[in-house]
Amino acid sequence: MINFLKKYPYVLLVLIAVVGYYQVALFQNTLKWDVTDQYYPWRMFVVQCLRNGILPFWNPYEQFGYPMHADPQSGVWYPVVWLMSLFGPYTLYSVQLEFLLHVIGGGVGMLFLLQRFHVNPFIALINAIAYMFCGLFVGNAQHLTFTIAACWLPFVILAFKNMAEHNHWRFALHFALFGYLLVSGGYPAFAIILFYILLTVTVFLFIRNRQSKHWMKRFLLHSIFAVVLLLLCSSGILYSVFQSSDYLARATGLSFKVASFGPFSPQSLISLMFPLASARDSEFFGTDISMSSVFIGMLPLAGFMLFIIRPKSRSAWLILAATIVMLFASFGSYTPVFGWLYKTFPMLDLFRFPSVYRLFFITGILLLSGIALSAPDAFSRLKLPLVTLGCIAAVVTIFFWFKNTDDWNFKPWHDAVNNISFTQAIAFQGFIQLFFIVMMSLTLLIKDRAKLLMTIFTLSAANVVVAAQLNIPVTVTYNFKTSVVAKEVKEKAIADFPVPEVRPVVLNNDSGGWVSPFWRNLNLFKKQPAWDGYNSFQLKNYVRFVDDESLRQRQITNNWIYFADTVIAYLEEPIIVAPASVHNVCYVPASEKYLLNIQPTAGNTVSVKTFIPGKIIVEAKAETSSALTLMQQHYHGWKIYDNGKEVTPVVTDYLFMTIPVAQGSHRIEYRYENKPIHYALWLSGVTLITLIGFSLFAFFSKNKLQTLPR
Predict the structure, then answer these.
(1) How far apart, in Å, are the Cα atoms of 305 and each of 124, 312, 382?
(2) CB of 353 closer than 8 Å to CB of 359
(3) Bridge partners (DSSP) listed for residue 610
(4) How far apart are CA 407 and CA 424, in angstroms?
(5) How far apart (Å, rounded) are the C-alpha atoms in residues 265 and 105?
(6) 377: Cβ–Cβ under 8 A, 6 or more apart, which residues?
(7) Please, are residues 254 and 702 in contact by the beta-carbon 8 Å criterion?
(8) Contact partners, residue 257, CB within 8 Å, separation at least 6
(9) Which residue ranges in the chain fall short of pLDDT 70?
(10) 294 touches 268 (CB < 8 A)
């Protein structure tokens, strides 16, 4: 069995991931919260566009339409989403498969990384399994971009380490490739934080190797080469973000109060031993339950304790220091570290959730524990850390067992775990953790090395899987059957892009009851243009409109495309809203009112002929000079053609596109022709394909360096 573990560790990672996440892997239960309400409908829309030959740059069904390509979390630029479009529509099965594949990918990447740090292959496998079931993967399962970032992070660090140590161009290719996967698919905060970490490491390497001019020159050249490739691959994302900066509500950074939301609070450190308890009382922990766990299993935790008491190399000290800094940064406003980083370094004020720093804390602990457990005498010296953990578990468990005054709930498993109290969670999981600690301690008495390793491996894997199974009903899955929900969605959702009914926008509410458990971003399924939508990406003019409640309530009673009967000029904000007796109003800046000449009439008609993302064609008939308003946000790249002649729109109500329409019949085309983004797509795509091609050539080259860690 030991030989099997050495030869086929990836098979073990896949099998254990499937067992540990069987509710997801076997499509028994749907994923929970944001991954269902946000990431799934976005990806479904992107894949629908691609399969219909449409570039998914403009989403017309949410927030009066917005440039989806400018939202880093949308999946528009992520190659995995494009690849999945080749195999059919994106369904609930697809999003669960994507989640599982990234969990496995994270385990494989961590295995490679640990081995590259010369961690014993057996210990590396144990810690890679711990990574797949760590507090971020289980706690943040609803945040698919967190999962994606955790998948590619070890690969990027590995490529950087290889590039620094081997100084070969092939590792620059790896860095650019995995860096792009992280940037295009992951939550942006992880890439930004990693950038500063690698920049700091680079400075340290240059100081350490300052006597080796040859190394410095080659590393600098390869680093520049890697960064240039990464920038070319990321050109679509980067230009989209740059282009949106004038329109984006969050482009200038978040306030400290907003940025501090969602920390990993100091009291959440209890999750190192009792992860279920950290998901039971958000008020006590002062954070969202998805942000409150750093669980890695008892053996890696004991290994980290062993590392603390052992002699350390200079590199190990640096990793430990970085790990501690990341921990204190994850505490958010509980310590000054996060505030200092927020104020000092550019881009660190662009995201919420200080808890994202905890992924780097988890990675650091697994690296350091792996190094400690790889020492020849590690198991003989592991007794003290395990006994210490056992004493802590025993004392805490007994205390909370007698403190518990709640009745134990013996409902079905999913309901029981979701209704367990905080004290019960600690007492219940405490017994389980104490069992594993005692069994690991007894295992150390085994004289036969092979039996000892197999028993330790089995106990360690079982420990993290059991802990994950306790939390999965709370933070990962609903108690809804995937097959039942997927069937109902397929029956009720609109799969293509029909012309939506022209009706008041207020009727196209994007939230509310539909197929359980869906309740937000529903118009991506219904294919109706809506005024709302669940998304942190918001253009500032949209925010102005929504926040002006009187204006919003007044205007969403209009059809989503309408002839204005009245044009009202405004000089100051907020806009003074006309009485309800005045219908089909549009509000225009006073300096531009002369562009719209209105002669009210009841005879104007408009008929929508085509409505697909980025292209709307209408036929209109005006009895007198009129103004036609399309309730889609004005943005870079929109072109409007009236009977083939380009027309410049007037921006009304802060954000809508209104054009003057002369008396007569008109064929009006609205086209989202954002050419710079199309050019960036070609540049990004060609670079990515070339990068993959050269990486494969390097991998299969007969004279290549050994790229996979030994």
Answers:
(1) 17, 13, 9
(2) no
(3) 617
(4) 9
(5) 28
(6) none
(7) no
(8) none
(9) 1-2, 250-251, 410, 702-710
(10) yes
Which residues are CB-neighbours of 13 under 8 A, at least 6 positions away? 104, 107, 108, 111, 125, 128, 129, 132
- Smallest Cα–Cα separation from 69: which of 88, 90, 42, 89? 42
Q: How far is CA 661 from the centre of its chain?
A: 44
| Residue burial 353-370, b: 16+ Cβ < 10 Å; e: rest | bbbbbbbbbbbbbbbbbb
Distance CA 105, CA 638 (A): 39
Please, are residues 371 and 117 in contact by the beta-carbon 8 Å criterion?
yes
Instruction: Give the distance from CA 149 to its chain's centroid.
Output: 7
Decide: 354 and 332 in contact? Cβ < 8 Å. yes
- In the numeric block, which tokens belong to residue 173? 């290719």
Q: Minimal CA–CA distance to 289: which of 133, 73, 138, 463? A: 138
Q: Compute the distance between CA of residue 40 and CA of residue 145 in angstroms, rounded to an integer.
A: 12
* Omega within 30 of 0 (cis) for the link into 613: no
Rg (CA), the chain: 28
Amino acid at 118: H
List 570's β-bridge partners, or say none.
589
Cα–Cα distance for residue pair 173/544, rounded to 1 Å: 44
Q: Is 337 within 8 Å of 244 (Cβ atoms)?
A: no
Q: What type of residue sits at position 596?
A: L
Structure tokens at 85: 């479009």
Q: Which two tokens stand for residue 633?
A: 């946000």
Is the pTM higher than 0.85? The answer reads yes
Amino acid at 253: G
What is the sign of the dihedral through the CA atoms of 356, 28, 518 and 496? positive
What's the burial of 249, exposed, middle or buried (CB within 10 Å: 0-12/13-18/19+)?
middle
Query: Domains (ranges, CATH) in the chain?
Result: 21-249+480-498+525-532+677-710 (no CATH), 261-443 (no CATH), 558-673 (2.60.40)
pLDDT of residue 710: 39
Tokens of 531: 């005024």
* Residue 539 to residue 521: CA distance in whole angstroms: 17
Q: What is the pLDDT of residues 160-204, one digit of tens each?
A: 999 999 878 899 999 999 999 999 999 999 999 999 999 999 999
